[in-house]
Specification:
The complex is a heterodimer of chains A (258) and B (122). Chain A is of the alpha+beta class and 258 residues long. Helix content of chain A is 15%, strand content 42%. With 122 residues, chain B is mostly helical. Classes of the chains: A alpha+beta (258), B mainly alpha (122).
Chain lengths: 258, 122
């Protein structure tokens, strides 16, 4: 079973980005293999006291949206996510109401996703069914105090995102979600080098269209969002096709427990 | 005006500092492989070693370009070609390496690059 490491509430910038990508970068359909993400919506009743709500599905992968009384709540600002314990943790208890809390999320009974923090140890156990796969590494971070006598830091991060597939893995339908949640599907059949190029196009689009609206108060664009974009060809002879995107993302006091 | 030679030299110095900081030094070959080149008003950061690419971006499989002596902990794995190994032996090999990114740790560090440019004005 593959799990994101060491998570209770998501705090590490790399884990926050992974959860964001899982929610906004939709997995394409695959020939011969089923999708790893299953989407569902569940409702809960608020009582003005309870802040923690456990979803009924066995393994929460990401949260697409949360609303209370029909009003959307901001991720990591109004609520936190505990993937290990399948919990949504509100910072203020939702008001009393019958089924007034709605949580739209993805799950997988075995805990398998297609987007993970980079971990070569786990990658030893991968089979063809685990591809395509997206791996996120934090390659650089720095923080600047924003003013005299102020402890707030403006943090800058560089993330390397690897999109990897194996020879012969075929994908067909690619879903693109815009900032307002509209999903459109493009039907194409791709494999090998073409597949990683197409998946990277989708990833770029998912980040550009959704980072500002869905990660408000958490991450925002640094001076330059896409720092580097390339397909690495030196592993193709080993049946590994890989494309890399380096993102520059900023945030205030990112990852600090409030 | 910015002295590009100075920028190049300082960037390479910082890359080497990153390599030392991450303890990616065995024979010193990687450390001394980085250099810079100025062509058409642009600075090119270069390395004479094939595996500098693996160090920068990490690997998902053992790259064919990986040198047999680096990294030390994977001697056996890196000195053999995977296609020549038995299935069991192949399964026991490490599948990848994280991206150490010594070059991008410098180039994408805004504060560091600002200080390099400040030091490079003629």
């Amino acid at each position: 079973m593959l799990l994101i490491s060491n998570m209770v509430k998501l705090n590490e910038p790399v884990d926050i980005l992974v959860e964001f990508l899982r929610a906004e970068y939709k997995e394409p359909a695959r020939s011969s293999y089923s999708k790893r993400h299953t989407n569902t919506t569940e409702t809960f009743s608020g009582d003005d006291l309870e802040t923690e709500f456990v979803v009924s599905s066995p393994k929460l992968l990401c949260v697409n949206s949360v609303s209370v009384g029909g009003t959307d709540k901001a991720k990591y600002v109004e609520y936190d996510i505990d993937l290990r314990n399948n919990k949504i943790v509100f910072r203020t208890a939702p008001i009393t109401g019958s089924n007034n809390i709605s949580v739209d999320y993805d799950y997988n009974n075995a805990g398998q996703s297609w987007i993970y923090p980079r971990d070569p140890e786990r990658e030893q156990k991968l089979t063809k069914a685990d591809y395509p796969r997206v791996a996120v590494s934090n390659i650089n971070s720095s923080g600047d105090i924003i003013g005299m006598g102020d402890d707030t830091t403006l943090d800058s991060f560089s993330f390397q995102i690897d999109i990897v597939t194996k020879k012969g893995v075929v994908c067909t339908d690619y879903k693109y979600v815009n900032g307002s949640g509209t999903v459109s599907t493009i039907s194409e059949t791709n494999l090998n080098k073409n597949l990683v190029v197409v998946l990277k196009r989708g990833l770029r689009s998912a980040v550009k269209r959704n980072l500002r609206s869905k990660m408000r108060g958490v991450f925002f664009y640094d001076d330059q969002l896409i720092l580097e974009d390339q397909v690495l060809d030196f592993e193709s002879e080993l049946g590994v096709f890989r494309s890399i995107l380096t993102l520059g993302i900023a945030g205030f006091n990112t990852g600090e427990i409030i | 005006m910015v002295d590009l030679n100075k920028v190049g030299a300082l960037v390479v110095k910082e890359i080497k500092r990153q390599i030392l900081k991450m303890q990616l030094v065995d024979t010193g070959a990687l450390l001394s492989s980085y250099n810079y080149d100025i062509r058409g008003g642009k600075i090119f950061i270069t390395s004479t070693l094939d595996y500098a690419l693996d160090i920068e971006y990490g690997t998902f499989e053992l790259s064919s370009s990986a040198d047999k002596d680096f990294p030390k902990t994977s001697d056996q794995a890196l000195s053999m070609k995977k296609k020549d190994m038995s299935f069991t032996a192949r399964r026991s090999l490490p599948r990848g390496m994280i991206p150490f990114a010594p070059v991008r740790r410098v180039l994408f560090n805004k504060k560091l690059m600002e200080s390099i440019f400040e030091k490079s004005f003629e």
